[in-house]
Structures are given as C-alpha cells and as structure tokens.
C-alpha cells in the first residue's frame, strides 16, 4: 500500500475515535450531525437516557432546593425529561412548559391536571393559564432543550431563535441548564453575538457548571 493511502486510513481512524468525531464547523453541519445521530437511537437507548437524566435532574433540583422550574416535553429524538417532570410534580415542584407562538416567541403554562395538547411544532404543550416569558425570572431553575453545547457553555438550538430571544428578554436570569446527550457536548460551537451562554449542561452521565457563569 502506498504511504499516502496508509496515512489517510490512520487519519480517518483517529478522527472517528475523537470525542466529537469529525468536528463539524458550521451551525447547520452540527445540527445535521446531531439530527442523524438522534434518529439512530434505539428505544432501549432512549429509555436508558431518560433514566440517567432523571437521576441527574433530581439531584440538581434537590441540591438547589428548587420549588419551581421550567422544563420541556421531548420530541422523540430529544433527551427525555419526562421522568424528571413526573418526579417534580409528585414532589409539588411547579413545572412550567413552553407554548410556541407563530412569531417565534414562547408563552408558558404550569403543567397541571388539564394535561397537554399538541402545539405548533407537533410538540406536547400544557393546557392552562398562559404567562409571558417574564414568569421564568421568578423560577429557581430553567431546564432547556438544545442541539449541542460546547466546553465554553455556548448553546446551539434548532435555528428558530426561540430560546435565544427568551433568554435575552429576561431581566433576571435564573440558572439555565441545557440537556443533551454525551456526544453533543462539543469542543467548540461557532457563536453569534446574540448567543447567550448557559450556566451548565446536563447529560446522562454528568451535570457540569461552566466557570464563566455564576449559575
Ligand atoms: N421539546 C421541545 N420543545 C420546544 C423546543 C424544543 O427545541 N424542544 N423549542 C425550541 O426552540 C421551541 C419550539 N421550537 C422548535 C424548534 C425545533 C423543532 C424541530 O423540529 N427540531 C429538530 C428535530 C429535533 C430532534 O431531532 O431532536 C429539527 O429541526 O429537525 C421544533 C420546535 C419550544 N418548545
Ligand atoms: N435576541 C434576539 N432577538 C431577535 N432575534 C434573535 C435573537 N437571538 C437570536 N435571534 C434570531 O434567531 C435566529 C436563530 O439564531 P441561532 O441560529 O443562533 O439559533 P439557535 O441557537 O439554534 O436558536 P434557539 O435554540 O434559540 O431556537 C437567527 O435568525 C437570529 O437572528
């Protein structure tokens, strides 16, 4: 085998063993990679992730003595927060969930006896009294979805700007934790000036607080 071929093969083997795989560069490339890897997860793997995340989130909420939190109801590919939401409700912790508006703003309602209904993006949303985003300023902990997070705490979403706008609009920002799978914690995500770093990240195996953020 010519030398150049051998070196190409060893290069590609090294890339696939790196934690981020072949490091994607642009936001759309990262979103495409994560979308594909989420779609490949088996039901068993999703259930394992849910159980691990439940433990991480219970531990975080307990340490912070949280009485009211925001969270999200997952799409089939997203890290599953339903175990935590069930636990929170059983422990009388108020759980506020997002309601998507056409103008890419978010309203919020407390999850209660009225349950949920299918919203704008096919996501389950709470039925009940709607509040503006400002209600989140009064909560103890914000648990938010993400596509990926980097080692500096920069968060990437799905490109619609819902959470970027929300976080920018709050006068007081409680600790914000993004929930992702382990392989979605990347070395670097390109940041725009409107991107606001999160306080921490939760994966099935770790809860990490970023040092640049008091959270
Ligand atoms: N569960 C959940 N609720 C949420 C959000 C979210 O990201 N997840 N949002 C956050 O802004 C807002 C709604 N915005 C949305 C953003 C992206 C997609 C979407 O279709 N995303 C992916 C698929 C996600 C996946 O594979 O895990 C896509 O673009 O294909 C839907 C709604 C409010 N509620
Ligand atoms: N504070 C803001 N005010 C108005 N528009 C914003 C703000 N922040 C972001 N946007 C707009 O939202 C769009 C998506 O931004 P970006 O690609 O950073 O999304 P994202 O991190 O995937 O979003 P999110 O998770 O919030 O949905 C961009 O067009 C951006 O200009």
Automatic annotation (TrEMBL):
Its EC number is 6.3.3.2. ATP binds at residues 27-31, 155-163. One of its GO terms (molecular function) is metal ion binding. Substrate binds at residues 73, 78. Pfam families: 5-FTHF_cyc-lig. Residues 1-42 are annotated as: Disordered. Residues 1-18 have a biased composition (Basic and acidic residues). InterPro entries: FTHF_cligase, FTHF_cligase-like_sf, NagB/RpiA_transferase-like. It catalyses: (6S)-5-formyl-5,6,7,8-tetrahydrofolate + ATP = (6R)-5,10-methenyltetrahydrofolate + ADP + phosphate. GO terms for biological process: folic acid-containing compound biosynthetic process; tetrahydrofolate interconversion. Its cofactor is Mg(2+). Transmembrane segments: none annotated. Gene3D superfamilies: NagB/RpiA/CoA transferase-like. Belongs to the 5-formyltetrahydrofolate cyclo-ligase family. PANTHER family: 5-FORMYLTETRAHYDROFOLATE CYCLO-LIGASE (PTHR23407:SF1), ATPASE INHIBITOR/5-FORMYLTETRAHYDROFOLATE CYCLO-LIGASE (PTHR23407). This is 5-formyltetrahydrofolate cyclo-ligase. It comes from Leucobacter viscericola.
